[in-house]
Amino acid sequence: MTTIQFSSPHYPPRARWYSRLLALGSMVRRTLRLEKLSLFHDVSPFRICLNLMVPCLAFGLSLNRRLMPVMVSFYVLAGVLFILWLGYPIANISFGIMIAIHSASGLYFLNHLEPDQALGKRVAFSLAIMFVISQLIYVPVLNQVEKHLVIPLQMKGNVIVVKSYASLQSAQRGDWVVYRANGNVGMGYGIDRVLGVAGDRIHFTPESLLVNNVVYPRAAYMPLSGELVVPENQLFVWPASVNLQVHGPGVENQATRLLMQNAMVPERRFVGKPFDRWFWRRQNFNEPFQQS
Asked: Where are the alpha helices (DSSP H) in 1-154?
């Protein structure tokens, strides 16, 4: 016996798992009166995203076509200043100008779609656009640039631009490296020359420092004796750039212990290698060690 099943067109469909979400969304729209918002009607999502993500693109909608090249010029100039003076206050100001111009472009696009916005809605859109553009575009991009390309650091009273793309394995004896300080020290980063790489034998004496039997002069607070071998994927530096914070009796012993905690630089604390020059500016570092 064959059973025939059919569904009546008058039978209500079964509720889906997302029905409650749709109902909640409808309630929010009614409460905030968002159903009256016709801003995005007849506008493709691609066009909206394009005009919000590409700086100055929306200024091309103006009847005065000279507005777009002017704003593009200001944006490019701010970008150039940001790169040239990376790490200085003028770079921070330029970065803010870039965000402001980009946000103004996005707001201009939305105003072009709905020119008769109320003042409250216009202010809300302005704040929302600036927040979205800065937090979803500029801040993530800047974080990735600092992580994988270059990072400016305030060190020794100067701005040092560092190659964050450099690997620990690329560092050789004599190279300057930047690393995160470890322990009870007065600054977050150190910048010193590499004295030993993986496999090098370090020997401390009261008169000198020996690295693979090559003699270097002693630096302040070095141990008077002892020997070690630099482990794999680590560098040996003497952290002369680190500001110590030690008090009370046994200051020298405390200083030696803290400096030895920072002398071995593993990969997790390695930041990169500083540029010799950043465009026309030569980056100068102190020279605590000279081979004898």
From this structure: 19-32, 45-53, 67-84, 89-113, 119-133, 139-148
Instruction: Please check whether residue 221 is in contact with residue 255, taking contact to mean a CB–CB distance below 8 angstroms.
Output: yes
| DSSP designation for 137 | I
Domain match, 184 and 84 both:
no
DSSP 168: G
Express each pLDDT in 26-71 by its tens digit: 665 565 454 544 445 556 677 777 777 888 888 877 655 778 888 8
Q: How far is CA 39 from CA 14, 44, 278, in A?
A: 33, 11, 46
Tally of helices (H runs) and strands (E runs) in the chain? 7, 13
pLDDT of amino acid 234: 97
Listed residue (108, 146, 150) closest to 126, CA to CA: 108
Q: Identify the residue with better confidence: 234 or 103.
A: 234
Residue 51 belongs to domain spanning: 19-148
Domain closes at, from 148, 165, 196? 148
CA–CA gap between residue 25 and residue 43 (Å, rounded): 21
Q: Using an 8 Å Cβ cutoff, are 194 and 235 in contact?
A: yes
Whole-model pTM over 0.90: no
With H, G, I as helix, E, B as strand and everything else as coil, classify residue 150: strand
Residue tagged 């801040």 (tokens): 139
Of 160, 218, 165, the residue nearest 190 (C-alpha): 160
Residue with tokens 């803010």: 96
Q: Are residues 45 and 158 in the same domain?
A: no
Residue 43's SS3 state is: coil
My answer on whether 117 and 239 are in the same domain is: no
Of 147, 91, 74, nearest to 281 (Cα)? 91
Annotate 152-165 with b (16+ C-beta within 10 A) or e (fewer): bbebeeebbbbbbe
